[in-house]
Design goal:
By secondary structure, the chain is mainly β. The chain has a single domain, classed as Porin (Beta Barrel), CATH 2.40.160.10. It is built from two helices and 16 strands. Strands 1-2-3-4-5-6-7-8-9-10-11-12-13-14-15-16 form a 16-stranded antiparallel β-barrel. The radius of gyration is 21 Å and the shape is globular.
Length: about 325
């Protein structure tokens, strides 16, 4: 971390003397109260605030950025969460977007919660690796690699790779999501450590509301599939598949979103644990209470129905303020 801060200071000094100086400052308020009584996930209340800044220079579509991101969980010591270093190169044009380094996850990686849970935005807000996206008139496709842990005497080697995209014609679309997570044992090879592989994909076809409609929304359905193995423990890959559907509607400042997975339970490395159940329905009632150009505020109440027997609830509050030049 000391080396990273030293590099950041050198970087800041360099761009501070640049004529094309750019900056961005972010504030994020987080409130997440989970009233759970089930065997899949545990009850907790997450309250905190994140501050982040980026400084950099631009040159003909090329960008260099450096900064820090820090989460303060209310009720904890200031050193409970370590600052996250932001440092990356980006090239962006009308058709392509490429990043390499440690860069914010938000607005780049948008997978179903079954595959990548929303707490990653709280505790792992950066992608550390690379990301690329290509846009066409009829769709887009992106791919990323996120290096989570470097192998050492005590640490496992862990990385995640994925791809997602969309093909559309007018208001009809087809979405794809592919994800791989690999864990390799540490150099000491602790007897309790094993090599694990988690793979999965989701394919959904849907229809969106027309641009001239008074409300915004969509409905889509398809399949969610997963495979996982623990080498030396499981007999090959353990496979699962389920019907996967989602519907969303927004009118003015209010919205409703429902997601259904029905079939076999899934085991993703960083997925929402609710999807381990065979039948899971989540419905969110959403209030967009701030809609300023630079400030977004959202509050939602979530209802989780497990195997058509258990009902759990959750309340989430998010305030996001971004400004810069």
């Amino acid at each position: 971390m000391k080396l990273g801060l030293t590099l950041l200071l050198v970087f800041v000094f360099f761009i501070g003397n640049s004529q094309d100086f750019k900056y961005q400052i972010l504030f994020e308020g987080i409130g997440d109260n989970r009233e759970y009584t089930n065997d899949y996930s545990y009850p907790q209340t997450i309250l905190g605030a994140r501050g982040a800044f980026e400084l950099g220079v631009d040159f003909e579509g090329h960008k260099l950025r450096g900064g820090l991101s820090f989460l303060q969980e209310f009720g904890s010591d200031i050193d409970a969460q370590k600052p996250k270093l932001i440092i990356y190169y980006q090239f962006q044009s009308e058709q392509t977007n490429f990043l390499f380094g440690a860069f914010p996850r938000r607005d780049k990686i948008n997978f179903p919660l079954a595959m990548l849970t929303d707490t990653l935005l709280y505790y792992r807000p950066n992608i550390e690796g690379m990301y690329g996206k290509v846009n066409w008139a009829w769709g887009n496709q992106n791919a990323f690699v996120d290096w989570i842990s470097l192998r050492s005497e005590k640490s496992l080697e862990i990385f995640t790779a994925g791809a997602s995209g969309e093909i559309f014609y007018k208001n009809v679309f087809l979405e794809n999501y592919f994800l791989l997570n690999h864990e390799f044992c540490s150099e000491e090879r602790n007897p309790n450590e094993t090599t694990k592989d988690h793979l999965g994909f989701a394919l959904q076809v849907g229809i969106k509301s027309l641009k001239e409609a008074n409300f915004k929304g969509y409905i889509k359905a398809g399949v969610l599939a997963s495979s996982c193995r623990e080498r030396g423990v499981t007999d090959g890959f353990q496979n699962a598949a389920s019907f996967f559907a989602e519907a969303y509607a927004k009118y003015k400042n209010f919205g409703v979103k429902s997601v259904l997975s029905s079939g076999a339970g899934h085991n993703f490395a960083f997925g929402d644990p609710f999807y381990k159940t065979n039948d899971y329905l989540r419905t969110d009632v959403i209030w967009y209470f701030i809609n300023h150009e630079k400030i977004k505020g959202k509050f939602n109440i979530s209802f989780h129905i497990i195997d058509w027997e258990q009902l759990n609830n959750q309340q989430q509050l998010s305030i996001l303020y971004v400004f810069g030049k």
